[in-house]
Write a structure and sequence with these properties.
By secondary structure, the chain is of the alpha+beta class. It has a domain at 75-243. The chain is 58% helix and 10% strand. Residues 1-17, 65-72, 246-257 and 270-278 have low confidence and may be disordered.
Length: 278
Amino acid sequence: MFPSRTLCELSLPSILISCPRISVFHAAAARVGIGLSLQFRSRDAKSLISKMKMLRTIRGIFSIVLFFVLVHPTWARDERSIKDLAKALTKLAPDVDPAEAEQISVIAHTTARKLAKDYHVVLNPEFQAFLVNVGARKRGWCGHWAQDIGTHLKELKPRTLVLHWGVAYDHTSSENNCLVITARNQPFKDGIILDGWRRAGRLFWCPVIKDDEYELEQHYGHSGITAWKENMQWSAWLQDYEPVAQKPKKATNSKVKEVSSTRNERRSNDLSSQVIVP
């Protein structure tokens, strides 16, 4: 054992010898500390990345669950409404084509949902109309809904059902426009209303005479007098199409008549020539 000496008793050579050792020791310790800190930092980074991945996975699962919770009931309601409307349209008259009624029901429902996205509908239909009036939205009035849904229904060219345009409280602040579907040669009041505006994209439909929200003289309860009337100008626009099966039949019939007439002329010419020639 060397005797313990204070720093002042140390000679200059011993201090010079010990200083490099101390510095080397501190440098090595610093390197080890840096290495350990880097290892800890890398571990922290890996754990942070794994946590972020886990959060993203949880967020994706939550969004999927939320999608099914919110959207699935909507589609379920639409499916029931599509089937019920198709049945109601089929019952309008015995000669209504069930396939045609189903097509109209599907197109009306899906188009109303699509227009709600295209119009960027916010809150309720009244507020959407306000946004259109101030210029914040381009479309969203009740007439826009009826026109755009009617455009898609016209493309079906229905043969057993007729498209009509209905208006209630015309030229007032309570005006509403909708589509009305009837059977052939059926009065307007016996038809079924299709209104995409009233429920902001969820298609509303009911018989014209049973629309309690648009009745006249509502003093005490329901009057049973509908406020819906037919707009003949827009009904003419909706009905401005030719059924699918009419054009080819007319064309083929005319061709057959032309061919038969030419054959008859040839036969008459042949007979005349045979009579004249001895």
